[in-house]
Specification:
Layout: H1 4-7, E1 31-35, H2 47-55, E2 60-62, E3 64-67, E4 73-75, E5 98-102, E6 105-109, H3 117-120, H4 148-162, E7 167-168, E8 171-172, H5 175-182, H6 186-197, E9 207-210, H7 214-222, E10 226-231, H8 245-248, H9 251-257, E11 263-266, H10 281-287, E12 291-292, H11 320-330, E13 334-337, H12 340-349
Helix pairs in contact: 2-4
Length: 354
């Protein structure tokens, strides 16, 4: 079911905002979800990236969560951190480099769960996509790795400053591996952190997402906050290899998801056909009472389908407005994007012409 029209594009967004957008209510019909913050403009998963996204009008910010060896939730896209921090430049941590098999993949590097929070504080964030976003490397070394508590504190402070609700959209990363191999229970750490911050109800501005199934079912029994099943274009959940992701977008699969979650976060190739027309997924998900928030709109040609590339330069800006317009026409409830400022501007204008 993965569409070649979009498989090369976990997609786009058109232009960079230089001034804050008008504040948006968190209950907008179309949610703008800042993917790892304004990660197209600042190193991902830093307080600077989250704050920029909020100032640009994003409805939700998305911190991916892993945990230190002493049980502190921190925001990194992966538990392996050589691509997003300067850990390789620290000789005192040279002996932490190792190889682990995570979700069936052998990965070499440095892993958050092998550091205490005090040790992790020594490191500084850097741009992960330096080749595509060289302008972001000017921020390398400026920011540390935020804890989840610090992300929550930022959200609360910005809510007070801006006078609007700002949503949180945390993703727990590799919970099965971390529990089984490292003895770290992300679900067990997350629930009390949410309760402490006042996130306990389905009406609270928060979604918790995961590519795995078991952790979401555990969360369903432990909290009333909204849950989202992420759906990858290939493979199956690490903790449910007998259930391919492709099966999750069938009527039977959606009905099963609706028994423990409130929404789905699919790769956009499940929403759009090869020619850009709409599949039946949005209608079917809504029929089961599920919200649908596809991922991820990115602006660079590197991530674009051929029809929307502006030229042969992988760093070039592709055709954001048409692709976002296709998703809006499909009736999605929200969109993950690396460039929330641009997405907010497009939503406000309603103009998705190239």
């Amino acid at each position: 079911m993965v569409r070649s029209f979009l498989l090369s594009a976990i997609a786009q967004i058109g232009f960079v905002m230089t001034t804050p957008a008008a504040a948006q209510d968190v209950d907008n019909d179309l949610l703008i979800i800042a993917h790892r913050g304004a990660s197209g403009e600042r190193p991902e998963h830093t307080l600077a990236a989250y704050e920029r996204a909020i100032d640009q009008g994003a409805d939700y910010i998305e911190p991916d969560l892993v945990a230190t060896k002493d049980g502190v939730l921190v925001s990194r896209h992966e538990n392996e951190i050589s691509g997003t921090t300067d850990v390789a430049d620290h000789p005192e941590f040279a002996d932490r480099k190792t190889t682990k098999t995570i979700d069936g993949h052998e990965i070499e590097g440095w892993f958050v769960e092998d550091f205490t929070i005090a040790e992790l504080r020594i490191l500084r964030a850097k741009e992960r996509l330096a080749f595509l976003r060289p302008e972001n490397t000017q921020f390398d070394g400026l920011y540390d790795i935020p804890t989840f508590d610090e992300v929550i504190a930022l959200v609360k402070a910005k809510e007070a400053e801006l006078g609007r609700s700002i949503g949180l959209y945390p993703e727990i990363k590799h919970p099965d591996f971390l529990l089984r191999e490292e003895g770290i229970d992300l679900v067990g750490l997350l629930v009390p952190a949410l309760e402490k911050a006042g996130y306990t109800k389905a009406s609270d501005p928060i979604f918790v997402q995961c590519f795995e199934v078991g952790p979401l079912k555990r969360l369903d029994a432990l909290t009333d906050v909204r849950l989202v099943q992420l759906i990858h274009p290939v493979g199956a959940p690490a903790d449910a290899p007998q259930t391919p992701y492709a099966a999750m977008v069938t009527p039977e699969g959606l009905k099963e998801i609706a028994s423990y979650a409130d929404g789905i976060g699919p790769f956009i190739g499940y929403v759009l056909e090869d020619d850009g027309s709409t599949t039946s997924l949005v209608e079917q998900a809504h029929g089961e009472g599920l919200k649908i928030h596809p991922w991820t709109l990115r602006r660079e040609n590197e991530f674009m389908p051929e029809a929307l590339k502006s030229n042969d330069n992988p760093r070039g800006v592709g055709g954001l407005p048409p692709l976002m317009g296709m998703l809006v026409a499909a009736g999605v409830d929200g969109i993950f994007t690396d460039h929330p400022g641009a997405a907010v501007m497009l939503r406000e204008s309603g103009n998705y012409e190239p």
